[in-house]
Amino acid sequence: MPAIYRFKRVFFERDALDYPMGKEMYQNFKNDGYNVEFLQSHNRVTGIPGKTSREAFYQGKSTLVVGMRRTLDFATCKPSAHFQLPLVTGCEGMCEYCYLNTQLGKKPYTRVYVNIDEILSQAKKYIEERKPEITLFEAAATSDPVAVEPYSGALARAITFFAGEEMARLRFVTKFPYVDSLLNLDHRKHTRIRFSINTERVINAYEHRTPPLSERLTALNKILEYGYPGGVIIAPVILDEGWQKEYDSLLQKMRESIIYDSDNNDIHFEIISHRFTRRARTNILEVFPETTLPMDEETGRKFKYGQFGYGKFVYTNEKLETMKDFFSTRINELFPGTEIDYMI
Questions:
Q1: Domain extent for 295
Q2: Over the stretch 230-264, which tens digit does the pLDDT of each residue have?
């Protein structure tokens, strides 16, 4: 079973074994040598140690919980899609800047939902309600589902489902390269697989327990070869001194790593500049007290209210315009014919 990281503990809701996906996952974990423990609810997990904030965070990231998704109302997902598709919550990666660090509690364990037929049936309802418009679903809004795909197979099920839906499209983003089980699926180009990439300096400094850039680009090339619409999210773009040279090198490495043909490849770009809230900064410093993330409110920043009503510190308009000009120019030069969905 391929895995960049082995969980320290795995919990199952007992009712999860009533579902075919739950039974299969349970057997996969037992075959892989795990001592699976049972609990009543994936929302009440008491078996994760950790006395300090740092210990609790690391132990939570080392825990997987398998259960049912009981709330089937899907959240919206701007700007990348109309709705979230809740297959997984959480991620074992430990990126210092990740916004999930402020949303998933002090012990941020990963949850996988086994009632996938119910989840996809709910997606079908949203699709029917929005016809004749095409409905977009994002499967990685609060997770990295590829990280646990070798155990769950949830993405494969979802890709197959959306292949049969003319008025719907699926998309997800990942830092993990475990896409081999998805390559031979009859996806009918209804699923866009994107990879989160960054400069090697940013990956090494802030994206702990994640695969290197080279593995992500190799996986991107694989999915393009098998006809999937692809894409990259470059995030967060950190506008430190020398950033243009570093991000130009990143784009060059991407160009050299994939077989790109503007007539046959479908690649989209999403560019997200670094931003932070005061709450996020407090949480980051509790877990990563020696972080070098640029979180000075006064240095090249402005305060802005986000779509959910809370304030965050973003780069000044001047810095953002420089960033947009740089990426627009270089992406069009290196990848003519591609689309930039947004730059924020």
A1: 9-343
A2: 999 999 999 999 999 999 999 999 999 998 887 77
